[in-house]
# Entry
Amino acid sequence: MQFFLRFIATILFFFSSCVLSETLLNISDEKLNILSKSEKWQKLIKLEGINFQEKDDFAIHSQRFYLSRSENITAKSELSATLSSFIKTQYYSDINDHPQCRFPARFIWLKTKVDISDVKPVTCPNFQKWAKFSATKSLSLVFATGYLGNPASYYGHTLIKLNLDENSGVSLLDTSINFGAEVPDNEDPLSYMIKGVIGGYDGSFTYSKYYYHTQNYLENELRDLWEYELNLDDEDYLFLVAHMWELIEQKYTYYFLDENCVFRMYELFSLIDGIEMPTLNSLWVIPQEVIRAISNAQYKQKQLVKKTTYIPSRQAKFYDKYWQLNYKEQQYIAYIVNMPARIVELASFDITSKQKILSVLVDYYQYLIAIDEGNKKRLKQAYNSVLSYRFQIPIGKADFKHNEPNSPDTARPSSYSQLSFAHNDVLGNGVIFKLRPAYYDQLDAETGHVKNGALKMAELELDYFSSSLSLRSFSLFEVISVKDRASGLPYDSYDSWKLYLGLKKQNAICTDCTDLTFEAQKGWTIPIDSKTMFGFYIGGAFIENHENRGRAYTKGSITMNHRLTDSWNFYINVEMRKYLENEYTSIFNYQAQMRYKLQLNKDYLDFRVSARKDEITLGLGYYW
Amino acid sequence: MNKLKVFVSSIAIAVCASSLNVQAANKAPGSGPNPFSDCGIGAALFKDTKWAAVSSNIIWDIGTTAVISATASPETCSGANVVTAKFIIDNYDNIVEELAEGEGNHLASMYSVLGCVETAQATITSAIRSDMASSVSTSDYQEKSLVSKSSHLYTLVNNSAALNNCAVI
# Structure
């Protein structure tokens, strides 16, 4: 009898669900067409190709992100399949597999477009547990500043953080969502570079506790973090979090230059109605540009970003604190690090100085442990002795002022064009045009960049002298890594380096002499004060033979960077080259450049006067 | 007869459940499973290294599922104790530095997992600080593994009497 009743119930259940399904799927074909062509739907299913109807136009290639078969997928077929799956009453052994649980954002949106009021909402334990809607109140876009230890991180990184109630004051346990490439262990650098550019890696959203990232960025890679808390209302916040849940671990193709981490973050925010952001049209997408866009964006007649928080790396904390110490305290730090056993002599200082000195020492050793694998054991020993001493004095935070640099969103745009008028001693008067897609040079580094350093990719310079257009230079890359805040303490020396690969003219007065050049230099940069820095380098280069000079030279150079005011700064470089294959050839070069920056409304400009051997230029630059 | 069985069973379950609740509420500090020794943290999942080898582009899920499935049953190795243990091992240096100073975000985060309000946090910090001072100053401190040091700190926190005033034990 029981079996019979169950059978009847099952038949009725099945029948009713079919009727329900049929009824709801009686949405007119025209309505389905309209909905499937709507921008929101296409963004939800990651349809972003040109044709908008083909399999290859979908950014995600995981079948489990779609409810229709990927071979024949269209926006309309996916819409039908989604609607159908929502209204079908089907048994799921794990309720988390229910389409409403897998695609909560689609469900939220479709409820506003189609009458599915008869469909019973499903409770989704995994989604609810992950989103923690009862505790999380807002989300932040987090920007990790650039890292010269990994080319893919030169320009910074972004992630999202779901903020627990801000009254808790604790964010390390918040959930963070990251988009990254899935790079196999031990990938060689060449494959890494090529595959990264041509789309040889999958990329996906993943999540973790926020402290994983704070450990990795602040302690290990020594990169500062900037949190931009967004001003979303509850409805949009819930919708965005629901959509992120749909995307977790779905596979995209990762492109380092454009469809990268920050592009995917930007894409998420563009899903929200009412956020007015500029469109990304460039061939490359730089994290800082998206940070600027988000920061300047409006949302429902208010600023999208409601709060910015700076979190310094261990290295930044060390420098900030070290440079706040008085001379005596700095001297004592040097005294201790040269012989850690002397720490007991700290007893002669008052408690405030003790707390400061010990706090700086803790940060100093942790910073060095992160960068100096070879001396790790010895550094840890010294760190432990400092820590042990710290436990012996009373509880209390060291009294330092919290200094905050300008936030990255206030920096100028990343790309640069310049038009200069030049007087050349041999070639006469002419014009020089420069185009730099990214990122900064010795004079225009700002927040998020290495001050007095340089990071250039694909910088092109053309000149026009005596009715002749020629290629002046084209750099594949140029990196100048300097320690602009080094303390000069042991292991925190002034080590710096320069690397250049590209085409450039052998000198200012030659024509048809733009040759392949690879140049490397190692040296020291010493900050005299917060405005002035001197650099000393030695190195060499491989270059095409020109005027029988040979194909290799060594060089020594001295540089100086000085900031006169916030708007004026200058840079001087003098160098002596000795060609190795021609013992009679030595060349002395110099270059001096002064820059004045200005801002007109939202346009960022600069003027530069430059003098180098045999040439003077006056240029106007525009950042875009 | 069936009704009688159901009734008796219900009574038995209710009695067991209430005694479990009483046990949980009266549990002495430190009496729960130690995730380091009982749940495979360290041995099964973590290596004794810092985060140095981890790149920002590597996909990494630090959810507790892996810990739980490593060795022990979910009954003994889920919840606040495992989250606390993982937090300690992943943030050990920061926590110890903040213990020395008496306050900080990492310390507050650890206590928040345990449901400790500010007054309880300060009490626990004072209580375990002298033990940590002794531990850090021992000659073999440097040679100890991260797992061992984290386990020791976890035990100190878990044995603190003030933990009874926290919401989660």
Notes: Chain B is about 60% helix and 0% strand.
